[in-house]
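Sample intake sheet
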Amino acid sequence: PVATPAAASVFSDPYYIGGYNLVPNPYPSAIDWNAALGFTESNLFGTIWIFDRGSGNYGAYVRDAGSGTNDVSNIIPVGQSFFVQASTTGIGSLTINQAARTHSANDLLKDGNLPVELLKLKVVANKYSDELIVQFSEGSSMAFEGNRDAQKLRSPGDAPQLYSLTPEGTELSINTIPFSNETIIIPVGFELAANTDAVFNFTNLESFDPNITIFLEDLLSGKMIDVREQQVYTFTHDEGNEALRFRLHFKNVVGVDEQQLSAYQIWSYDSKVYVSIPALTGDKALIQLIDAQGKVVYEGEHHLSNPEIINVRANQHVLIARIITGTQVYTQKVFIR
C-alpha cells in the first residue's frame, strides 16, 4: 500500500530563536532535500541543519547549492531529525511528500557536482571542528538570501564557531556571493571559549581559475596568507580575542568566460590599502597616496610583500594609489572609510 504523505507544520517562532524548527524524517528510508517534487512548503528558507557529533557543530546544506558543511548533504538519513527555518513572521509550513524518498546512494551529492568557484574553510580546535563555505554564483548578492545562503546555527559546548559576516551583519555558514572584477572582502568570525591553537585548512581551490587571487588576512598577527601557496594556517587563539579576526580577499572572480589577466592588483578595505604585484615581490618601491586635490597624504618606501599593506590615517574617501619602481608606475583609485 502507498503510505500517507507525512506532514510537519512549522510555525515561525519569536525572533530570539530565529524561527528554527526541528522536523523528523517520517519515512523508513532516507529523503532527498533536492527532490523536485519532494516537499510542499511556504515561508521557509532553503536550508537544512543537522547536528554532526564528530565536529560538535551543526552542518548546513542549502537546496541545490552544491555542497554542505560538517558532512551534511542533500540526503537526510532514516530516523534523522533536521532543522528548517521560517522565513517570515507568521506561519511556515512543510509537507514531506513520497517523492522525497530515496533508496539510492547515487542521490548523494558528490564532489564532482560542486559548483565552480567554491572555497571551503575548515577549522580544527579543541578536539572539534567547524566549516565555512564561500561560493560565487551569477545573480547572487552580498546580502543574505534565504535560497542561496545558510545562516550560522550555533552549537553549545566546546566546539569552535566559524562563520562569515554579510554587510548587514548576518552570520553565515554558506555564503553565496556575486562575481566581480573588484576585490571582494569577506569578514570571517572565529569564536571558541578556550585558549588553544587552531588550524585553518582550505580546500577546493582547484575550482577557481589559476589567475584568481585569494588571501586570508589575520588582523591580530598582521599576516596576509596566499591560500593557493599555503592551504594550512595555524594560529594561537585566546578566548578574549576579537571574533572578527580574519578576512578573506577574493580578487577578480568574474567567472570562467570573463577571466582577465592582471599584472597587479590594488584594493582597499576600511582604512587599509593592499598592493599586490607578484613579479616585484621583495623589490623596493615608492608608494604614494594622493587625494582629490593632488596632495600627497602618504609617501613611503617599501620592500614589497605580496600583498603589501598600508594603513591610511586620512579622512579622504577617494585616493589615488601610485606605486613607483624603477621605470614602472602603477596606479589605482581606492576608497577609504
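Comment: The domain at 265-335 is CATH 2.60.40.1930 (Immunoglobulin-like). The radius of gyration is 23 Å.
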